[in-house]
Amino acid sequence: MKKILAIVVALVLCLGMIPFAQAEAVKVGVLVPAVTHGWVGGITYNAEQYCKELEAAGTIEYKLYTSSNAEEMTTQIDEAVLWGAQALVIAPQWTGMEVAAQAAIDAGITVVAFDMDIPAEGIYKVTGDNESMGVAGAKYIVEKIGTEGTVVALPVPTSGSVSELRMKGFTETMAQIAPNVQIIEYATKFTREDGLKDMADILTANAKIDAVFSLDDETSIGALQAIDDAGRTEIKAITGGGGCQEYFGIIKEKADQIGACSALYSPLMIKDCMDVAIAVVGGETVEAVKVIPSQIVSAENVDEYLDPANTIY
User: What is the pLDDT of residues 235-267, one digit of tens each?
Assistant: First the structure.
């Protein structure tokens, strides 16, 4: 009996010396658009950096896909499924991927969308607060110009719900706090080239403008160049959105000339998408939609957000 007990004790001690096996790495397919805009470049950069970090820690195995249109991204969703992905993190810039996303979800794959909606049942989403960006922009402009004047708004219809929500927050807030302000809408795109070209046209057509509601930092960079080129000094405020380091520098540099601000909407949020995907695959209960609040970056606090090491966006 003593001999049997000694053997049992020895076995227990030996088992205690064997380390527990780590959980298997989660296979994650990460789908991002080809870089056509600084903010998109920031998404791709931060996604890849975080994936490398998680892979080195043994948390995930990943494949990164880039695409130039909805059809290509849809094909890549199917490729990631065939690869054996347990989770998909998708940063769509277009509509039309709902069928492929739904098929993946129906196959038991966790799907997390970043920023834009993909109408699929059972999908998760991580986003900034687009509507509150418009609210904050309206309040900032009224703070700078008062409740009278002319404001040019630069919506981007091709960006879908992103532009719609930012404009909704802006126009509804302006109607409440400054109903006498005249708002002129001029459709543009999320690029500095379009901001420059379209703002030049706007300045030619309007002899006096008090402020500009821009939805994007790079659009704002182009718009500010047009304002400088035209020698216009009556414009008191311009907004932006995203979190572009170059624009942050301009906010600081032009503080004595124009009140410029950005509603922070950082591409770093792609990391939150990865965390949500891993948590869901691991069996954790996660809210279907995670909204990350926006913050206003202006001359008063821009030093807190300047990052010389960030040369991507």
Answer: 999 999 998 999 999 999 999 999 999 998 888
Write the pLDDT tens digit of every residue in 259-310: 999 998 888 899 999 999 999 999 999 999 999 988 899 999 999 999 887 7
Q: What CATH architecture is 26-128+267-292?
A: 3-Layer(aba) Sandwich (3.40)
pLDDT recorded at residue 11? 42
Q: Following DSSP, what letter does each residue of 83-140 receive, concatenated? A: HT-SEEEE--SSS--HHHHHHHHHTT-EEEEESS----TT-EEEEE-HHHHHHHHHHH
Helix axes 217-230, 192-205, angle to 10 degrees: 40
Is the Cβ–Cβ distance between 255 and 263 less than 8 Å? no
Quick check: 190 and 219 in contact, CB under 8 A? yes
Q: Give residue limits of the domains in the chain.
A: 26-128+267-292, 130-264
CATH superfamily of the domain spanning 130-264: Response regulator (3.40.50.2300)
Mention every residue, 6+ apart, whose C-beta is less than 8 A from residue 66. Answer: 31, 32, 33, 34, 35, 44
Burial of 174 (0-12, 13-18, 19+ CB in 10 A): buried
Alpha helices in the chain (DSSP H): 2-17, 38-56, 70-83, 98-106, 130-145, 161-177, 192-205, 217-230, 245-253, 270-281
Q: What is the pTM of this model?
A: 0.75
